[in-house]
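Message: I would love a firmer grasp of how sequence relates to backbone shape in proteins. Thank you; the sequence and its tokens follow:
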Amino acid sequence: MSIDPANSKSDLAAFILRITSGAAFLAHGWLKVSVFTIPGTVGFFESLGLPGFFAYLTILAELGGGLALILGVAVRAVSIPLIEVPRVYRRVFYSKPMRRYQGRSCLHRMRPPFPVAADGRLRHVAARCCTN
């Protein structure tokens, strides 16, 4: 049996992506439980006009889905619902109620491609995003 180098590289890339995504979801879920506390997270969701049970669903999805990704259990079945969590974050973050938490920052309005100098630094970011 021969080993296909292209296939082994794609398997390694999928493994790394699965582990890092799972760790990110697990960290976000644990943050909601340990730092913000569950009642605090529910209160924050309700302050945004979302039903309180969405906080429980989000915590369950992040903790359970992140753990399942790390362990490699039902990866495809878990990945599809986990796609919705960041999509909801994006919709809530750009919604009107959330703007009061954004303060005077205008970086949330930046759109790629960012103007990057040769040394990797961002330049003219504030001028471009704040004038729109």
User: Anything to note?
Assistant: The helical segments are 5-34, 38-47, 53-71, 75-93, 99-102, 125-130. Residues 122-132 have pLDDT under 50 and may be disordered. Residues 12-94 form one domain.
